[in-house]
Amino acid sequence: MFKPSKLGAIGVLAALALSGCGDKEPDARAGLSQREKDSILAGSRIPGARQVKRAMTSADSATARQAWLDSAQQAEN
Fold first, then answer.
1. What is the tens place of the pLDDT at every residue in 14-65?
2. What is the C-alpha to C-alpha distance for residues 44 and 65, in angstroms, rounded to an integer?
3. What's residue 76's pLDDT?
4. What percentage of the chain has pLDDT greater than the value 70?
5. Rounded to the nearest 5°, which phi and psi values hold at 55?
6. Side-chain-facing half-sphere of 6: CA atoms under 13 Å
7. Contact present, 61 and 68 (Cβ < 8 Å)
8. DSSP 16-36
9. Residues 52/41, Cβ–Cβ less than 8 Å
10. What global pTM score does this model have?
């Protein structure tokens, strides 16, 4: 059928041809932080979005609790 060298050349040409098929505009999500991406996901209706929202709420609570404990510890000193 095809020799290995021809098969490799066909693969390279196919990859080059496909690389030119993408859209030219940059992805709008590229500049978003992970928190912003998770927030968008949590607001969607896809499966698992509610769990993402709950995890974010838990993380926020833990962060607030740690900040409160840190400020209480500094007030003692």
1. 666 666 666 666 666 678 999 999 999 999 999 999 999 999 999 999 999 9
2. 28
3. 80
4. 64
5. -65, -40
6. 3
7. no
8. HHHHTTS-SSPPGGGG--HHH
9. yes
10. 0.55
